[in-house]
């Protein structure tokens, strides 16, 4: 955990130090390629994992439940914050 | 949208190749994924550090605006914990780790799969990573397609909070369309903060 976050902070420092260099603004493209490479690797280990392939419908169901719960929780919290702090009071 | 299809395509072709290799009983050579992850985290850091907008966004913060990302994080995590009570196969902290992807499916799935490998073993960690990938892709879809409904029933902030970490890019379009142009700044600010919280929260919950 600390390695991952430490590396990210190292990146922030490096990015800030080099922010005037033109090539640094192209990091976004590199990120897309790295993400594609990582997703491919994740797919590779998922595809070679028999237990996972056999459990795919069950895993999808769990994923749907967690996604639905997270979305519902955030819109409810959004509603509360909007009504308490952001909505303009009617005259 | 094109990006999402491309990512899904790479993941699917990886799955297919992995499945084929398994059929032919060819083991995948050494694990390079952690090192690629380190490269990715470094790049994410560089892009935050070098972004000229970071300063402007940080300077434009009003305390009230912080409530929006806080609402997203608190709402998502509390309901993910509730989902964790139903999904008995995994611990509640695992559901919290998945929920704290906030739609950032690429990073969260990889982080969770890598960080859980030591404690759960490769098989279970890969399963958890796959759930994180699917759950966060579904969240992005819900945020994209649900925006008009969320505005109607939960107010103009709802599409922003539903969008999680994606509100500064993927879902920014639907937010400005359905919540109004004045929400664009809120969405960008919100997206940046929630986006930055993903590596912290996901790795925190994976360490429990």
Verbal overview:
The complex is a heterodimer of chains A (91) and B (208). Helices cover 80% and strands 0% of the residues of chain A. By secondary structure, chain A is an all-alpha fold. Chain A folds into two domains: 1-54; 56-91. The N and C termini of chain A lie far apart (51 Å). The mean pLDDT of chain A is 81. The radius of gyration of chain B is 18 Å and the shape is globular. Chain B is mostly helical and 208 residues long. Chain B is 77% helix and 0% strand. Chains A and B meet through helix 1, helix 2, helix 3 and helix 4 of A and helix 1, helix 2, helix 4, helix 5 and helix 6 of B.
Question: What is the topological layout?
Answer:
The complex is a heterodimer of chains A (91) and B (208).
Chain A: H1 2-17, H2 27-47, H3 50-54, H4 56-86
Chain B: H1 2-23, H2 33-50, H3 52-59, H4 67-86, H5 92-99, H6 105-115, H7 117-120, H8 122-154, H9 158-163, H10 172-178, H11 183-206
Helix pairs in contact in B: 4-5, 4-11, 5-8, 5-11, 6-8, 6-11
**Largest interface, C-beta closer than 8 angstroms, per-chain residues:** A-B, 72 and 100 residues
Find the count of extended strands of chain B (DSSP E, 2+ residues): 0
- Number of DSSP helical runs of chain B: 11
Strand content of chain B: under 5%
Query: Helical element count of chain A?
Result: 4
From the alpha-carbon coordinates, what is the Rg of chain B to the nearest angstrom? 18 Å
Low-confidence stretches of chain B: none
Helix and strand content put the structural class of chain B at: mainly alpha
Portion of residues within helices of chain A: over 70%
DSSP strand count of chain A: 0
What gyration radius of chain A follows from the Cα positions, in whole Å? Answer: 21 Å
Count the domains of chain B: 2
The major sheet of chain A is characterized as: none
Helix content of chain B: over 70%
- The rough form of chain A would be described as flat
Taken from the alpha-carbon principal axes, the silhouette of chain B is globular
Q: What oligomeric state do these chains adopt? A: heterodimer
Number of domains of chain A: 2
Mean pLDDT of chain A, as a whole number? 81
């Amino acid at each position: 955990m600390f390695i991952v976050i430490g590396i990210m902070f190292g990146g922030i420092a490096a990015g800030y130090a080099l922010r005037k260099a033109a090539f640094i603004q192209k990091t976004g493209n590199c990120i897309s390629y790295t993400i594609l490479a990582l997703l491919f690797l994740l797919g590779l280990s998922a595809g070679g994992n028999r237990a996972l392939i056999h459990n795919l419908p069950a895993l999808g169901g769990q994923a749907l439940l967690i996604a639905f719960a997270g979305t519902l929780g955030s819109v409810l919290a959004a509603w509360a914050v909007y009504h308490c702090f952001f909505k303009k009071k009617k005259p | 949208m094109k990006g999402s299809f491309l990512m899904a395509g790479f993941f699917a072709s990886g799955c297919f190749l992995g499945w084929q290799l398994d059929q032919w009983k060819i083991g995948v050579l050494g694990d390079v994924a952690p090192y690629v992850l380190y490269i990715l985290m470094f790049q994410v850091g560089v892009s935050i550090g070098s972004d000229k907008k970071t300063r402007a966004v940080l300077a434009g913060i009003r305390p009230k605006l912080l409530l929006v990302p806080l609402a997203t994080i608190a709402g998502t995590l509390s309901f993910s914990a509730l989902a964790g009570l139903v999904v008995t196969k995994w611990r509640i902290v695992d559901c919290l780790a998945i929920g704290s992807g906030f739609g950032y499916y690429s990073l969260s799935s990889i982080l969770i799969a890598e960080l859980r490998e030591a404690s759960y073993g490769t098989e279970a960690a890969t399963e958890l990573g796959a759930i994180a990938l699917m759950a966060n892709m579904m969240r992005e879809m819900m945020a994209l397609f649900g925006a008009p409904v969320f505005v109607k029933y939960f107010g103009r902030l709802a599409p922003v909070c539903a969008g999680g970490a994606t509100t500064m890019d993927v879902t920014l379009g639907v937010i400005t369309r359905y919540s109004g142009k004045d929400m664009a700044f809120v969405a960008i600010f919100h997206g940046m903060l929630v986006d930055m919280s993903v590596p912290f929260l996901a790795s925190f919950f994976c360490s429990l």
